[in-house]
Amino acid sequence: MESVVVKNLTKKFHHFVAVDRISFVVKRGEIFGFLGPNGAGKTTTIKMLCGILTPTDGEGQILGFDIVKDQQKIKQAIGYMSQRFSLYEDLSIEENLRFFGGIYGVPSATLKERIDELLQKMEISTPPSTPLIKLPAGIKQRLALAKALIHNPEIVFLDEPTSGVDPLMRRKFWEIIYTLAQEGKTVFVTTHYMEEAEYCHRAGFIIGGKLIADNSPGQLKKEFENNVYAIESEKSIELFHHLVSLPFIIHKALFGKKIHIVVPPDKDISLLKKEFRALGYPVVSIEQIPPSLENIFLTKVKNTSS
Ligand SMILES: Nc1ncnc2c1ncn2[C@@H]1O[C@H](COP(=O)(O)OP(=O)(O)OP(=O)(O)O)[C@@H](O)[C@H]1O
Ligand SMILES: [Mg+2]
After folding, report:
1. Going by CA atoms, what residue is nearest to atom 6 of ligand 1?
2. pLDDT tens across 262-277, in order?
3. What is the CATH number of domain 2-215?
């Protein structure tokens, strides 16, 4: 069953197209990662899916509800963690959860139990009476997720939940996301951390409002398995700058003494070592390496804009 179905979804702000005819499907229990740089259109998309923003064009259903006609029903049915967490700093952990539980109509008889259960699941052991102002970002982040889950929704939309949180806390957060998916919840999560796409069942790349890829990390990598090489050279910085003049280099990145390059799959690179040596760049080795999602993303961005 599908939790999210979107077709040609578009949002314009006056003449500016923030989201440009995107179509995709998210299945129940799936972790769908929505990746893109600042200003790509992630928040605008998520807000349309959550019934907060009305699309300019296109259509979509969330849990069978229409994103234009059933915005109120969607807001009640889904969980949403906004980019700024939206918690009350002067209230305590428990007061925050009680407040949002009330808004979502969680019966008061079961609210206390629900809060305890969520705090346990989020691994928050800080006393519930602690005001938020005293909490580190990692705990606030998990509390914001608890808030989004207070009414036990089937699907949660998380807008850059891990930004501004340290790597350890980010990892912990992802473990909680896995638990949710295992329980059958659908998780739609935006991020600009490439490595987080690896944690998702499926990743969509958005740039300039356009969806430029939508597949499992494994499939995305398969598409590029013969395209990425590591060049090792003592003069890697000089060589790196020289690569600008080579039109077949789709993408390049420096990693210490090594340069990773992305080239078209039909490119014969066997002569490259000799060529570089002749130009005065001694090359120790050139070897094919598995693509990273960053390679793929940047290649797709380049292919889209050229
Ligand atoms: N209410 C608005 N009026 C005009 N332009 C807007 C509005 N909201 C967003 N935009 C523009 O639409 C584009 C997409 O914005 P959006 O917030 O969806 O990006 P994002 O991918 O969430 O970025 P970030 O990673 O910074 O959160 C940006 O260029 C933004 O300036
Ligand atoms: Mg955003």
Report:
1. 13
2. 998 888 888 888 888 8
3. 3.40.50.300
